[in-house]
């Protein structure tokens, strides 16, 4: 399994990233992929091959990640 995380921005997410690194450390069947901030076309290409999309966010009221995935056929 690949667990993709959008990264590359400073903020409160640093604690979450540290915890995720600890969770995935030593896992044989799961890896975490840090996907740095991309332009919208690049991001849509990245999510086009994914099977499950989630967007836990404190700042975004509409789930654009899932909407973009639907648009790409994910």
Oligomeric state of the chains? single chain
* Tally of separate domains: 2
- How are the strands of the biggest sheet laid out side by side? 1-2
Order of helices and strands: EHEHH
**Number of E strands:** 2
Give the radius of gyration: 13 Å
Low-confidence stretches: none
Q: Residue-averaged pLDDT, rounded?
A: 86
Describe the structure concisely.
The protein folds into two domains: 1-35, no CATH class; 38-74, no CATH class. The chain has a two-stranded parallel ribbon. It has three helices and two strands; from the N terminus they run E-H-E-H-H.
Overall description:
By secondary structure, the protein is α+β, with helices and mostly antiparallel strands. It contains three helices and two strands. It folds into two domains: 35 residues, no CATH class; 37 residues, no CATH class. A two-stranded parallel sheet has the order 1-2. α1 links the parallel β1 and β2.
Features:
74 residues, alpha+beta, 2 domains, two-stranded parallel ribbon, 3 helices, 2 strands, globular
How do the strands and helices of this protein lay out in sequence?
Blueprint: E1 2-7, H1 13-24, E2 31-36, H2 40-47, H3 64-71
Parallel strand pairs: 1-2
